[in-house]
Design brief:
The protein has 300 residues and is mostly helical. The chain contains one helix and no strands. Keywords: Membrane, Transmembrane, Transmembrane helix.
């Protein structure tokens, strides 16, 4: 970026070569001093925006709600239901005890005293003041010229020949320093932006892209290979071991149940079998014949 134009114009205030000679070194020095400050300022601004969005704003809302609940609402209730009625009562009491007596004193005492004072001023003090003014007119003129010669004229000379040039020089210096500071601040902004972009590009090329390439080209195939060659067989073996363990556990439980039944049978004997009741059925010998008058069910 060009710090100066190709053909510097004469300043609008009528400054000469001295101003131009002061401007360039001042801008260079201010630029060197402001670039680090602007870089740190931009970093602080980014950090502040992040903290504001993630920490300060939610915390502020929570604190605002807590402050309202703890301070505002109780004071609003106190103001509305206690202080306002009390104030109205005090206003009425003050009106009765103070305002009305004061109005009566003003009307009956102060107003007559004021009229008397006006009469004394118009009839006594004013003529006496005219007399004093006509005896002290010459003395006032002498004091005026004495003060003008001893105080006013030296002050005007100091202002015209010393303070005004010094003020103009300081104004030129301050204006140029402000312009240089603004110019350097803008240049430092561009430099900080360029440095930030360069650092971002360097970080992306040094860390992000290699990590992405390693993940895509190395870790993903290795992960698939490990999954197919190790994890899947290991999972199948684990399932087989689990099935074998469950089968062994079931066999052990069955063995325990049989051993328990054998011990019970040895100590207590075999359990009795339930007797099955058979229904009475007619036999072949007791079946009804042609020469018999009874049946197998009615015989005996």
């Amino acid at each position: 970026m060009e710090l100066e134009k190709s053909r510097p114009e004469r300043p609008a205030g009528g400054e000469g070569c001295l101003v131009v000679a002061i401007r360039v070194p001042v801008r260079i020095v201010v630029l060197v001093l402001v670039v680090p400050v602007r870089t740190v300022w931009d970093a602080l601004v980014v950090a502040g925006r992040f903290l504001n969005g993630t920490v300060f704003r939610p915390a502020g809302r929570a604190l605002l709600w807590v402050g309202r609940a703890v301070f505002v609402w109780p004071f609003v209730g106190l103001w509305r239901y206690v202080l306002v009625p009390l104030g109205r009562f005090l206003v009425r009491l003050g009106t009765v005890l103070v305002v009305l007596p004061a109005l009566a004193v003003h009307r009956c005492v102060l107003t007559p005293l004021g009229h008397a004072a006006v009469w004394v001023y118009a009839r006594v003090l004013t003529p006496f003041g005219h007399v004093l003014a006509a005896a002290g007119a010459g003395l006032g003129t002498g004091l005026y010229w004495t003060a003008r010669i001893l105080l006013v004229l030296p002050a005007l000379a100091v202002r015209r020949w010393f303070l005004a040039p010094a003020g103009r020089a300081l104004g030129v210096l301050a204006r140029e320093a402000g312009a240089a500071l603004g110019h350097a601040w803008r240049v430092a902004g561009y430099v900080s932006l360029a440095v930030g972009r360069a650092l971002g590009t360097l970080l992306r090329r040094v860390f992000v892209e290699p990590v992405r390439w390693v993940y895509r080209s190395v870790l993903t195939p290795v992960g698939h290979a490990v999954h197919d060659a190790v994890l899947r067989p290991a999972a199948g073996a684990a399932r087989a071991v689990g099935r074998a363990g469950r089968e062994a556990l079931d066999a052990a439980r069955a063995s325990v149940r049989r051993a328990r039944a054998d011990v019970r049978r040895t100590l207590l004997g075999a359990p009795r079998k339930p007797q099955v009741a058979h229904r009475r059925e007619p036999t072949g010998a007791e079946a009804r014949t042609l020469g018999s008058s009874t049946t197998a069910l009615t015989k005996d």
